[in-house]
Amino acid sequence: MTDRHHFEAFMQAYQNMVYSTALRMLGNEADAQDIAQEVFLKAYGRFADLSQSPTACGWLRTVATNLSLNHLSRYRARWRFFSEMFSADEERDFVEETPAPETFESTLDTNDQRAILDEALQKLPASQRVPIVLYHFEELGYEEIAARLGISLSKVKTDIHRGRAALARKLRPRREAL
Amino acid sequence: MITPDPHLEELIHRELRQLPERQAPATLIPRVWAAIEARARQWWRGPWLTWPRAAQFVSGALVLAVLSAAAYWSQSADLDATSAPGALLQRFPLLGMLWSLGSSLLGALLVVLRARESWVIYGATTVFLMYLTCIGIGTACFRVAFRKAGKG
User: Fold this and answer.
1) Nearest CA to A132 among B149, B125, B9, B33?
2) Exposed site from A63, B65, B67, B82, fewest CB < 10 Å?
3) Domain residues for B122?
4) Which of A15, A111, A164 shows the shortest C-beta gap to B12?
5) Contact partners, residue B41, CB within 8 Å, separation at least 6
6) A165–B8: do the CB atoms touch at under 8 Å?
7) Average pLDDT of every residue of chain A
8) How much is the pLDDT for B104?
9) Cβ of B61 under 8 Å from any chain A Cβ?
10) DSSP structure string for B7-51
11) pLDDT tens-digit profile, chain B (152 residues)
12) What SS3 class is residue A99?
């Protein structure tokens, strides 16, 4: 097998993971494809090391996350501004709207419902989606997310809570219909 | 500050982690190959350190030769029009203008360095310090402004 075939097989093996990571961070398919391409270009540059490495998957994931964050940071001032347009009153109202956990305790059991959740995640504003993805998929702590995004700890917690509640609201009607 | 709801957190975590990976578009791999091939064709656009060895050697030798030639000819007051470099500069007026400007600046710098007048040294130091101060103040303002925006 030539290097080209090796790298082709490598991309085949990891393309979905890299693309999904970027897509969840960015919420945009075209941008996610650009980032995935950039990740594989970097991987190609150090394929001699990566092809033998048991941590190749983790490396690709980290690079995809970092490149996505870099991409988002170009637009950060904009999404930060819109995120912070929410006033304290709205925040209070939002908490009151949050459904009681008991009402959505069952789990999703169909692919359709997962697709709905995936779509809902993508549609969240970046200020909520990015910390949620970093917390639930990349398993970073609140402090680490605050440091990575350059925002306050309280804002991270608020944004994540808002995002979770928005996702829960998407799930609830489906469950009630079951 | 909102206190995270552990119940909600657990539920969303469980549901999100069950989401399958999204299928990458079929165009992704061909795009990557196309980009790799384009980069391979345009190696000179990348950093010099990533150039092919032969290209690094040739370009390094060329730069050294140009600098040596410039240093040698800048010692003579004017280039003779009958000499090869002089003829070249006459043939390309823009190149001649650049040569004239570069040699004037180099000459001025050499005069200043040879003179070693204390006021020149003090002046240059002052300008340099003012430049550093501008960068420092600008950086501090930028960081303060963005940190406040982030915590706001």
Assistant:
1) B9
2) B82
3) 117-147
4) A164
5) none
6) yes
7) 81
8) 80
9) no
10) HHHHHHHHHHHTPPPPPPPTTHHHHHHHHHHHHHHTGGGS-GGGS
11) 566 677 888 888 988 888 889 999 999 999 999 999 888 888 887 788 888 889 999 999 999 888 777 767 666 655 565 666 677 777 777 777 787 787 788 777 777 777 766 777 788 889 999 999 999 999 888 887 766 544 43
12) coil
Is residue B134 a part of any domain in this protein? yes
> Do the chains contact at A117 and B152, CB–CB below 8 Å?
no
Q: Report the residue from A20, A41, A95 with minimal CB separation from B2.
A: A95
If one counts every other C-beta atom within 10 angstroms of the C-beta of residue B70, the result is 14
Facing B150 at nearest CB: one of A17, A18, A152: A152
Residue of B nearest to A40 (CA): B32
Tell whether B128 is covered by a domain: yes
Residues in chain A within 8 Å Cβ distance of B32: 11, 37, 40-41, 44
What pLDDT does residue B79 have? Answer: 59
List of chain B residues whose C-beta atoms are within 8 Å of the C-beta of residue A19 = 21-25, 28
Number of domains within chain B: 1
Helix (H, G, I), strand (E, B) or coil at A15: helix
Distance (Å, whole) CA B81 – CA A41: 51
**Residues A121, B1 contacting (CB under 8 angstroms):** no
**b (16+ CB within 10 A) / e for B1-12:** ebeebeebbebb
Using DSSP's 3-state secondary structure scheme, residue A35 falls into helix
Question: What's the confidence (pLDDT) of residue B29?
Answer: 95
- Write down the pLDDT at residue A1: 57
Prediction ipTM score: 0.74
pLDDT for residue A10 is more than 90: yes
CB contact under 8 A, B22 and A107: no
What's the pTM value of the predicted model, to 2 decimals?
A: 0.61
Q: Is residue B78 part of a domain?
A: no
Say if B135 falls within a structural domain: yes
B118 interfacial to chain A (CB closer than 8 Å) = no
Contact list, A165 vs chain B (CB under 8 Å): 8
